Amino acid sequence: MEKKLIELRNISKSFDGETVLRGIDLDIHDSEFVTLLGPSGCGKTTTLRIIGGFEAPDEGDVIFGGTRINDVPPYKRRVNTVFQRYALFPHLNVFDNIAFGLKIKRPKLKKSEITEKVTDMLALVNLKGFEKRHVSTLSGGQQQRVAIARALVNQPEVLLLDEPLGALDLKLRKDMQKELKSIQKRTGITFIYVTHDQEEALTMSDTVVVMADGKIQQIGTPTDVYNEPQNAFVADFIGESNILDGVMIADRSVRFAGHTFECLDGGFAENEPVDVVIRPEDVDVVPVERGMLSGKITSVIFKGDYYEIIIDVKGFKWMLETSDFVAEGSVIGLEIVPDAIHVMKKSEYSGRFGDYSTYSEEAEHLSDIVSDEEAAAEASDSPDTDESL
Ligand code: ATP
Question: Is 217 helix (H, G, I), strand (E, B) or coil?
């Protein structure tokens, strides 16, 4: 692991008597792509603003390269920020928007030096040839690239990005995710990225910091937080999960859903109540007589390369993914191998996330929201945009 660049030590923050951050401890390393991930209001942006110096913590220390910088103003920190609303200068062209920070630098830079740096940045964000275009004639994706180039041209050690792709439609957002990751790799600049989109976080990050209720719930690689969630909140927030109440009988033996399963977990007290998480893709659908559990299928949704099915096992609705077609109303067996079971300590989030009883209504509601968003994005697309650059 690279050397530590930023350390947050026991950071707390309240607004109007409401505690927003509660004892945040976080190490961020040189050249790392770190994402703060969590639901709206969990304190991600406030954490980012504290790193940028736009907000002061009530308690705790912000350390940069070993030095406490709590009292250093934003413009003296070696960080730069890209916001969701990119705030470009509308009366300037692309070149002058990117060159702005360089032109006000003292001692003054040579004109040729500025041109070289801006040209390099335009190449980096795939906007070669756009120098003279006015930013008002650019599409949302292109404007966001200009904002990124403008932030990177000053060669900050750290780039803070607050939901920078939030205003873009889904397809463009996916393309920009890849580009941002590639820019980060090529420049080696530390990126601290805020999003509530778990897929975005898992795709781009070296390290994911999952937050809820003003606290860090887990810090890990994307595979860690997916495969080894720390508690029921993380298991529910990242990916789909069946979360069941269980009892740890002994090391490598856990009981849930009325059956005792072999698992890989240990280190719990005898008969300790636990939360058990099982991902939909990790359960095998088998004939009833071979199943450790069995249940009736209440819903089947075709997803292209697999079927997403809901099964009622003694009143608990499981979600499973299977590549074989199974008919609604049929009774099937479930086989769960030790590797598919992940046991977690009970936490304040235990029991807060139910099964998939209400899933079909949720899914319908979500697809309504998505189609509204897409319709709005299409309606606002300007005819001269060209995203194929
Ligand atoms: P979102 O994704 O919605 O931006 P977030 O996780 O980034 O959420 P924050 O923006 O950090 O969350 O906000 C956390 C809480 O602090 C929210 O309840 C918010 O209303 C409150 N808050 C943030 N900034 C201020 C402020 N300047 N004054 C008062 N309350 C604030």
Answer: strand
